[in-house]
Structure formats: C-alpha cells, structure tokens
Design a protein that fits this description.
Blueprint: E1 7-9, H1 25-35, E2 41-43, H2 51-60, H3 84-87
Parallel strand pairs: 1-2
Length: about 90
Amino acid sequence: YAMGINEIWYGACLDDNNDYVDCRPEFLAQMNVLAQTWGITIKAPLLNMSKKEIWAELNERKIDPSQFWSCYTPVNDAECGECNSCKSNDV
C-alpha cells in the first residue's frame, strides 16, 4: 500500500487445493477481507484451473512452458522433484 501497490497476484491452482490451504477459494476470500483494510485486492487467476489446463493455455498462447515450474522446496534454483507440487507437475 505504501508503495502504491493495490493488487497482489499469486499462482495457486486447482491441483494444489487439497494439499495446501493457501490454494483454496476460502483462503483467498479471507485474505481479501484482511487486505481490504489497506486497499489491496489479492488475486489468484489460476485458482480454478488444473495444471494440465494451465499448460494447455501456455501452449495455446505460444509461451514456452519450460520457463515455468512449481516447487515448494527448490534446490539451487531448480525443482526438487520430490514435493507434492513437483509430482503434480507431471501432466
């Protein structure tokens, strides 16, 4: 807010909502209630999309999907290959 920011976007997706609380619509709704105090809106535009749907969208828009990955415990700036998020990247 002090920096002129009025939106925060994050990449929660449908495939992760069973394992991670911050990937659930209820979490987003409650965070928005809190953020409104500072005039900020939190957005998760991929929340209702599976990773398979996200990859398809990247391909349709001719965006190289190798530039994107999801990992909760990266090692040396690369995917760990072991966490739930990495395992669900195999679409």
